[in-house]
């Protein structure tokens, strides 16, 4: 058993190579007791690979990771007993009933018979699945499935939870509900490491780790990240011919991190007062009709665009 | 090994089998189907063999002898001819499979008490039917008169056909000459090979394919628990199917059962462990259900069918292939099954075959346990 001083998740210089390809590149990571750490990054950035290493499912190519105080490469079984893991792809048995899945994973985690009924009920209540016990799992709606998967991952009351995109493909209401569950568990002292590529969900996390092309590009609380990363002012531009506008803005000196957000553009400039007229002129010179241009507060997505763009610049 | 986890796996696997229609079909319908197909198929094959006769004597006694052939359900006397060339032509054209020539001095020699040579010519291109024809006509002749000797002449493939001596040994324990008695016990081995390896070959591959393996390996389950838990349900199914097939063999096909039940049970258990481990091993290595099931059929079903002595007698195979058959577990099981059913051989005489099965079982279980790793690749 681990003592209370142990940092639940601690990774140092973690590397995973698939052949020549480096999927995870020297990652350092730390999660403290009761913290909800968000792991953010675009597709293929190495989130799942990192989580799998932390769960002892993939052997790190280099570096070290301690989970609940145990080395994931050397004592994966000790790690597995203390963690709950929800994989990115739904991986409960679709052909079993809800209750059968719960009983199965209770068996896998060796939940004692005396606690079985209590835990089963707890999971059913938590996941809002009471009354659905005998539904065949495959026929449940997406959000319900995800809650069942979470329930099955916490039957043994692990102190550390790894959730890999637990809300992907789930409707917004179910997503909110899911995050409430995560926070309820964190309040009880469970350490949660969760990946997502919904930037709005990042706001729910105590701490964020931004990963891009296998590397950590920034880390900190949502507020810290926004302050650190955004040197300059963020402008929102609404106009027609978005593609052309994007090209034009990239040529304007001082403007950077131009990005498409829905049907508007975001751009970072050193100073709003002087830049707004210059941008407006440049756009109309190319025949782009601007309907709105104004400073806005940065979202995490802007932070991310900003950071990854700088990283790409440095690399090329 | 934690009992909790073992029971959980067994229960889950059983539920999945029960809810999977193809699996149910294979476990219940396939044994019945194979038993009936082989049991009856074989019988049809050897019934009503078309026969031409050339009765050179044409006496009361020779006609009497031929009536015995007529009365047997194995033969159908199609035509009587009056010269050799007509017989040969009938054999060559396939109009008949067997031709019987009664010598000109048949009744004379018979009443003199001397040996009489009746010629039986067979078309030996179909080795199997030829053998059966010969042994059946010999049996007919024997029932007619113990002192009659049949002088077998083979038209084709002189070297490939068995000598009368080995024809004798084959029918020794099967005095009704019912070929199904020979075949049906062997079908049990085929069925067990399929049940044991085909279904298990899917179990691990299915978890990979459906993505459920990732969750499974993230739990504290051990590879041994996973293997035992997954194989127990199929083991039980295998034993139940054995009982079903044995009952069918004895009650329906009236195959004699002269041996001990314990020997049957012991050998079935060993053979099941062999095929289950093999199926599991394949499943671990293949990672896709399609590849796994094909590999399972190639590695267990086909050898059990072709190289175990089920379809072709081993001693008639080319020498190199005979050597290979020693690597086929079904070969030993086939021997044991036939001996237990037809001869009633007891354990000491089957020791080497049982030992061989046990050895295969031990090696394959060890390989199967070692093969699975709780890692994603
Ligand atoms: N087993 C593997 N073999 C080879 N390459 C792999 C393997 N697993 C992952 N990769 C590669 O490693 C990179 C990181 O993959 P990973 O699944 O960790 O990304 P991710 O951040 O989880 O992305 P997503 O948001 O799509 O889930 C990808 O380019 C992927 O193609
Ligand atoms: Mg992923």
Describe the structure.
- Chain A has 316 residues and is α/β, with parallel strands linked by helices.
- Chain A folds into 2 domains: 9-221, P-loop containing nucleotide triphosphate hydrolases (Rossmann fold); 231-297, Alpha-Beta Plaits (2-Layer Sandwich), CATH 3.30.70.
- Chain A is 38% helix and 28% strand.
- Chain A has helices spanning 47-54, 76-82, 98-108, 113-126, 142-153, 172-187, 199-202, 222-229, 242-251, 272-285, 300-315, and strands at 9-18, 21-31, 36-40, 62-67, 70-71, 83-86, 160-164, 191-196, 207-212, 215-220, 233-239, 256-261, 264-269, 290-296.
- A 6-stranded mixed beta sheet of chain A has the order 6-7-8-3-9-10, with helices on both faces. In chain A, strands 2-1-4-5 form a 4-stranded antiparallel beta sheet, covered by helices on one side. In chain A, strands 12-13-11-14 form a 4-stranded antiparallel beta sheet.
- In chain A, strand 12 and strand 13 (264-269) form a beta hairpin.
- The longest helix of chain A is centred in the middle third of the chain and has 16 residues, at 172-187.
- In chain A, 43% of the residues are buried.
- Chain B has a 5-stranded mixed beta sheet, with helices on both faces.
- In chain B, strand 4, helix 6 (127-144) and strand 5 (148-154) form a beta-alpha-beta unit.
- Mean pLDDT of chain B is 81; it is low at 154-178.
- Chain A binds chain B through residues 52, 55-59, 76-77, 80-81, 83, 85-87, 89-96, 100, 103-111, 149, 152, and chain B through 2, 4-5, 7-9, 11-12, 15-16, 19-20, 210-221, 374-376.
- Magnesium ion (MG) is lined by residues 47-48, 88, 164-165 of chain A.
- Magnesium ion (MG) binds at residues 47-48, 88, 164-165 of chain A.
